[in-house]
Design a protein that fits this description.
It is built from 9 helices and 7 strands; from the N terminus they run αβαβαβαβαβαβαβαα. The chain is of the alpha/beta class. The protein has a single domain, classed as NAD(P)-binding Rossmann-like Domain (Rossmann fold, 3-Layer(aba) Sandwich), CATH 3.40.50.720. Helix 6 links the parallel strand 5 and strand 6. Belongs to the short-chain dehydrogenases/reductases (SDR) family.
């Protein structure tokens, strides 16, 4: 395969296999690693056309090459993007619409998990978490919904976290706050679009083995990346208003987390 073919032509070449679900053309932010990259692998295996976005272009290009090696006739476009830049996010979504001939689903998965204790003198770190996770998701939603509104169809997926359900302290404070904010964004969009054929799903992953939780020695009920992301993809395909992933135990733990004292929540989830 030539280098030009690996970069995917402007006129997409359709894969040999139709996808199992109608959402063929999918854009993923935060696709260079973790959940985003693994979702790309799952959907490439299913014959989807992909627009993959992240700040780290070399990682995206390696992922694209991996996917095209496995599926030479797949459509995989990559775009360097910092989702905190609103104008850049608009441009990339518009470019992906042209390159893929439209978008059926947008997964707002870009996020960072590092943080610092509030008042520790590292406010800049916490601001980066909040800017990327909250403003970046907002920017992605603005661009996606504008396209979906024009075509009166589409599926926006917001990747929140179980950490959104309660206020976690220490180095988790900014992350927990950001994930709660984007969960509220998802609910607000569902309210706004209630009479429109546009679906908004908020997904709450638990502990899946990614770089974000790799350094947490107290994490409980963690599952391997491949296992957790397979369940994540299945939850997304169902297009629910919200879902906890993996369902067991998090769908059963969630009601307890919402009402239990914080001391109990800390012991419960680590």
């Amino acid at each position: 395969m030539s280098a030009d073919q690996r970069k995917s032509p402007t006129e997409p070449q359709r894969g040999n296999r139709p996808p199992a679900h109608g959402r063929r053309r999918i854009l993923i932010t935060g696709a260079s690693s973790g959940l985003g990259a693994q979702l790309a692998r799952i959907w490439a295996d299913d014959g989807r056309d992909l627009a993959l976005c992240a700040r780290r272009l070399p990682e995206l290009e390696r992922l694209r090459d991996e996917l095209l090696d496995r599926h030479p006739h797949s459509v995989v476009h990559v775009y360097q993007l910092d989702v905190s830049d609103a104008e850049a996010t608009e441009r990339v979504v518009e470019r992906a619409v042209v390159d893929l001939g439209g978008l059926d689903r947008v997964v707002a998965g870009a996020g960072i998990g590092m943080g610092a204790r509030v008042g520790s003198g590292h406010a800049d770190v916490n601001r980066r978490v909040l800017t990327t996770n909250v403003i970046g998701t907002w920017n992605t939603a603005e661009a996606a919904i504008r396209h979906f509104w024009d075509r009166q169809d589409g599926h926006l997926v917001i990747i929140s976290s179980m950490a959104a359900l309660r206020g976690f302290g220490g180095a988790m404070a900014a992350y927990s706050t950001s994930k709660a904010a984007i969960a509220t964004l998802g609910e607000s969009l569902r309210s706004s679009l209630a009479r429109r054929p546009i679906t908004v799903s908020t997904i709450f992953p638990g502990n899946i083995d990614t770089a974000i939780n790799a350094g947490n020695p107290d994490k409980k009920w963690s599952v391997p990346l491949e296992v957790g992301t397979a369940q994540l993809a299945a939850a997304i395909e169902a297009e629910p208003a919200s879902a906890y992933v993996p369902r067991r135990p998090w769908a059963y733990v969630a009601p307890i987390m919402r009402v239990a004292p914080l001391s109990v929540v800390r012991r419960l989830v680590g």
